[in-house]
Amino acid sequence: xxxxxxxxxxxxxxxxxxxxxxxxxxxxxxxxxxxxxxxxxxxxxxxxxxxxxxxxxxxxxxxxxxxxxxxxxxxxxxxxxxxxxxxxxxxxxxxxxxxxxxxxxxxxxxxxxxxxxxxxxxxxxxxxxxxxxxxxxxxxxxxxxxxxxxxxxxxxxxxxxxxxxxxxxxxxxxxxxxxxxxxxxxxxxxxxxxxxxxxxxxxxxxxxxxxxxxxxxxxxxxxxxxxxxxxxxxxxxxxxxxxxxxxxxxxxxxxxxxxxxxxxxxxxxxxxxxxxxxxxxxxxxxxxxxxxxxxxxxxxxxxxxxxxxxxxxxxxxxxxxxxxxxxxxxxxxxxxxxxxxxxxxxxxxxxxxxxxxxxxxxxxxxxxxxxxxxxxxxxxxxxxxxxxxxxxxxxxxxxxxxxxxxxxxxxxxxxxxxxxxxxxxxxxxxxxxxxxxxxxxxxxxxxxxxxxxxxxxxxxxxxxxxxxxxxxxxxxxxxxxxxxxxxxxxxxxxxxxxxxxxxxxxxxxxxxxxxxxxxxxxxxxxxxxxxxxxxxxxxxxxxxxxxxxxxxxxxxxxxxxxxxxxxxxxxxxxxxxxxxxxxxxxxxxxxxxxxxxxxxxxxxxxxxxxxxxxxxxxxxxxxxxxxxxxxxxxxxxxxxxxxxxxxxxxxxxxxxxxxxxxxxxxxxxxxxxxxxxxxxxxxxxxxxxxxxxxxxxxxxxxxxxxxxxxxxxxxxxxxxxxxxxxxxxxxxxxxxxxxxxxxxxxxxxxxxxxxxxxxxxxxxxxxxxxx
Amino acid sequence: xxxxxxxxxxxxxxxxxxxxxxxxxxxxxxxxxxxxxxxxxxxxxxxxxxxxxxxxxxxxxxxxxxxxxxxxxxxxxxxxxxxxxxxxxxxxxxxxxxxxxxxxxxxxxxxxxxxxxxxxxxxxxxxxxxxxxxxxxxxxxxxxxxxxxx
Lengths: 771, 150
Prior knowledge:
Radius of gyration of chain B: 15 Å
CATH architecture of the largest domain in chain B: Roll
Strand content of chain A: 15-25%
CATH topology of the largest domain in chain B: Ubiquitin-like (UB roll)
Number of strands of chain A: 28
Structural class of chain A: alpha+beta
Largest sheet of chain A: 7 strands, mixed
Helix content of chain B: 25-40%
Structural class of chain B: alpha+beta
CATH topology of the domain at 379-462 and 611-770 in chain A: Aldehyde Oxidoreductase, domain 4
Largest interface: A-B, 58 and 54 residues
Distance between the termini of chain B: 45 Å
Oligomer: heterodimer
Helix content of chain A: 25-40%
Radius of gyration of chain A: 27 Å
CATH superfamily of the domain at 379-462 and 611-770 in chain A: Aldehyde oxidase/xanthine dehydrogenase, molybdopterin binding domain
Strand content of chain B: 15-25%
Shape of chain A: globular
Number of helices of chain A: 19
CATH architecture of the domain at 379-462 and 611-770 in chain A: 2-Layer Sandwich
């Protein structure tokens, strides 16, 4: 049987995998018929609106909803008093967040009450008539004030671990520090003896907003003993578990349907608006739909702002010796995914170099601002620009080309990265050379222009548990059931390509629907660049089971003992020149035009428990190069060109790989150049609209963006694939920062706004005139 | 409340709307034309773009009462045009569609650029700077737009 499978592989390679087939969902999305949660309606549905706190830290001493309850169209008003029969705390990492504010509020925008009414307008009108009396508390709106010994403590008492943090035993809370991650290799103190070059600086990274164009949206239906949700969540199975826990049901009693997502980028990972919607529907006794406005989604999830101190040492000749990093991530009022972001940032801090020693200490800090969660390439994006900036400083101090310095010091394939877990599974030197070559590295520099490269790694795959089902019916059509969330990346298309490839059927005969926890088998999550690699492997295995059944039937039909005599090609099984289509074989098997073959594919950790320390499934490379121009009169930085490397093993659909890197490049450019959520001292977000929070438009594009696909067929996924889509985000800001330093402006704070850059230029000029 | 009459996707339509109702809400909630998407609500993102009397407008910032007597085309109306047929082929080939949330608004903007009513085309980057896309990085949008407007 194994031989047959191998022959199938070789002969069928390229009929679907590796092709730029058009997306399965292109037509339905262009036509406006694609359904997103906001477009759905279910019978008897009400509309919800949320009253959010106007203050960052306060005790709620009075809450009067009587007037709102009498408003036209109002069916229910939800407050803390409706949760007395529940343990209302959720949080996959730390169970610190109540469904709705209880005794106090901890950030501006925290839900305090919610109204369900017949129309959106009625619900919105009613929340204005809820009276809340706040007794204000001292506010810690940023990292420095939250770490002050006199700071107000956001969460008193012991923190409870959530069910899905995957980080072992959580350490105890210390003041406002909810999580710490430390790693140490060798003895950092001993490396200083031979150090001729020492780079030691402090850095600031901004809080930013993912801005998936579709905001968080959910429809919840609570009917005793069953909860149904239509939600735009990236991880429906993890949300299901949290909803079941909160409302004291078996997980099988909670069913979540996920239609198309209008972008995710991490903003819709883990549980967001779902618990509040369920609680409101429970109170109303009718289904309720809640669709956030952008300003509400901005305080639902964001990327962590960060302070960092880093020190790098090297020999006079530029051999790297030691690195120390301390950083503090602002996770806002609730932990959300902060602990995981902290751990990932910690792992990114050393960078993929051959250190004699390093020491990293990361802290995840509560502040009275909106909660921070996942955003594409979290952790790696936070630290890579800092680490890589110091690598370039070493190169300048040693008088070595930054690319040469990396050639000398980067890890090689097979080198250990963490004391446990997967060694390096990529060729970083080859990757960064390709990126550098693409922007014309080595070309003579013009005035006010600079070039930079950057290299990093991101632990990808998360917990490697995914299942898939593939079915073939009596007409030969194929249905793939897999819970990867289609949020724009093209996962449904890729899954169809994988199934089509295995079965040698036309891509167009494969149907892939969205996630529905009632029907699609378990998939841990859609994120960490894992879908193609992990869930895709599940689809491949499931399709092979279907193929096994077809071969079994073909053996009977042809009267062949040895299945190795049979050949699978063009959606048929061949015995010499005789053949049966797969549809014919299904009909033969069941004796009529009906029945279906069902294949199951299971992916689980290859060894051990699949924990974070034992991982990752693969290392996603974060490699880019950039050329920038700076206007010394205005401080305006223009990115002239970028190049990124997607080291994907095998590109199932090369165009989709390119789109991933192009999208990540432009998001990274926004994060580097101008995106920044600005919180005032009182905890108010000052730029909570797209007018004030600017994201990249067509006008911000570099003249040239190159995305290079590297295929070494060395991934653990189907057909040697490994994931992509995040690495470029971490790499691009770092390459831009290095290019700007190459142009003469070394920065230690993002974003690189004209004002900041101009001030830095003045500082540098002042210093050089003093000499 | 006010009565108004306008031509929506080629069909004469009578509507009763509140004075403060936005065109976006009327299209989505009264008429079920959900291809028009709601996102920023401050006329920045372009997801709610519709064509009113030949010009692309953000329906999130237009009072419904202002379309009295006007001709409105949404993505649901664009589907019947030859432009749309071409756009489907070009967008699919360039893998321009990702999450799809910006796509209907983008197509309507592009359509308005092709019928000459807006005068000679400026730089395509400028023309499309009012349609945000967070997925694609815009390269494939510009490539498709180039083909569709040339």
